[in-house]
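Students often ask what a holo structure prediction actually looks like on paper. The answer is less mysterious than it sounds. You provide the chain, you provide the ligand, and the output is a string of discrete structure tokens encoding the 3D arrangement of the protein together with NAP.
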Amino acid sequence: MTKIVLITGGNKGLGYESAKALKDLGYKVYIGSRNDERGQQASQELGVHYVQLDVTSDYSVTNAYNMIAQKEGHLDILINNAGISGQFAAPADITPRDIEKVYNTNVFGIVRMMNTFIPLLEKSEQPVVVNVSSGLGSFGMVTNPETAESQVNSLAYCSSKSAVTMLTLQYAKGLPNMQVNAADPGSTNTDLVGDFSNNAKPASEGIKPIIELATIDEHGPTGTFIDDNGTVPW
Ligand SMILES: NC(=O)c1ccc[n+]([C@@H]2O[C@H](COP(=O)([O-])OP(=O)(O)OC[C@H]3O[C@@H](n4cnc5c(N)ncnc54)[C@H](OP(=O)(O)O)[C@@H]3O)[C@@H](O)[C@H]2O)c1
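The corresponding structure tokens follow.
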């Protein structure tokens, strides 16, 4: 049976590219977009389904749940991809309000999606969740002076992505019938990195660990964090 996939933030960047790859692999893909126009345009280009979905809004997430529940009756794969970088200011200048904005999308957005969609995932024969995290949230990478990640100082974004990997572990422990994993695309040339995109790879490369985790079979892992080279240190 064709598997149903929902990708948050699917109207551009890594989410868009993941939708394209999964559609080509034969999955039935829904892209979530917080903006109707951008979402509809992307879904038409890709030939996939579209659902209005702002991960910071209970109302929007509940409507998306109702729409997919009504049309499909279950969800096989949820890719929690929507994310923002926030501002790259000196840590001393970051206010609680600045951090709250980033956490509301990157962290609470995942909790909102999980809290709402778990019942629909539980109706799948093999529910899979992929959380798009980052090496910038990996303690192992940011403390290793040999990595590019150690050169970045971003209070809000880095700490939000550390939370994403811990959320992944805690959901994996609490949901033994699901496979919940985190992916690090690595530095990828999208709007999110903007001016920092010098050595970044194209999105078609960045999606590799996301697609790998989205397409695991029932023997695949849960509670892991990978990039294109294998396991990422916590
Ligand atoms: N690019 C990298 O180097 C890199 C590396 C590691 C991890 N990541 C992660 O990869 C994920 C995708 O990022 P990207 O690089 O593809 O960036 P991007 O091109 O800026 O795409 C981000 C997507 O998230 C959406 N989004 C933002 N806030 C949202 C909200 N409240 N509700 C729903 N959707 C929302 C955006 O929608 P709009 O078009 O409406 O803004 C857009 O579709 C993020 O979680 C990011 O942290 C990226």
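Residues 4-231 form a domain with the Rossmann fold fold (CATH 3.40.50.720).
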